[in-house]
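User: Please fill in residues for this 151-position structure.
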């Protein structure tokens, strides 16, 4: 089930966040994520966060700042089971368009977002990591059954 974030979820969310970043971003020094851990921990409650809760275990989460996906992470043991897709679907229910930055070297994430109807909008350099990234965008057509990003 997907539900809204609770304060008691924070430690589990942060564990998934750190594991996911270290796994997906091998091209960035792992200390970068460890050094930003406390800052992200402060920022998470300021976002709109939905968690995938399976029988009391948080398996993933999506953080939204308005229509921007500030984070989408699924525990590695629960990937490729539809959890990320369900979290994106929840975000699509709430917004007419969605955006996300994805590192160019994170080809698995790019493929995932494209499978969910996102397209590459532009490319830039991330100022904190100096790594190239794409801005990916999805226009959501509500109440339409045809179309890549339809609900």
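Assistant: Residues filled in for all 151 positions:
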């Amino acid at each position: 089930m997907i539900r809204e974030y609770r304060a008691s979820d924070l430690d589990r969310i942060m564990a998934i966040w750190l594991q996911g970043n270290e796994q997906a971003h091998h091209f960035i020094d792992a200390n970068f994520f460890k050094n930003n851990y406390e800052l992200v921990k402060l920022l998470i409650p300021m976002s709109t966060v939905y968690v995938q809760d399976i029988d009391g275990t948080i398996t993933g989460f999506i953080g939204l700042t308005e229509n921007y996906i500030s984070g989408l992470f699924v525990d590695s043991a629960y990937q490729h089971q539809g959890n990320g897709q369900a979290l994106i679907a929840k975000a699509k229910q709430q917004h007419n368009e969605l955006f996300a930055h994805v590192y160019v070297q994170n080809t698995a994430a790019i493929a995932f977002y494209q499978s969910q109807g996102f397209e590459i909008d532009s490319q830039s350099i991330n100022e904190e990591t100096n790594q190239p990234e794409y801005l990916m965008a999805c226009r959501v057509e509500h109440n339409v059954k045809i179309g890549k990003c339809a609900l």
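For context: The chain has one domain: 2-139.
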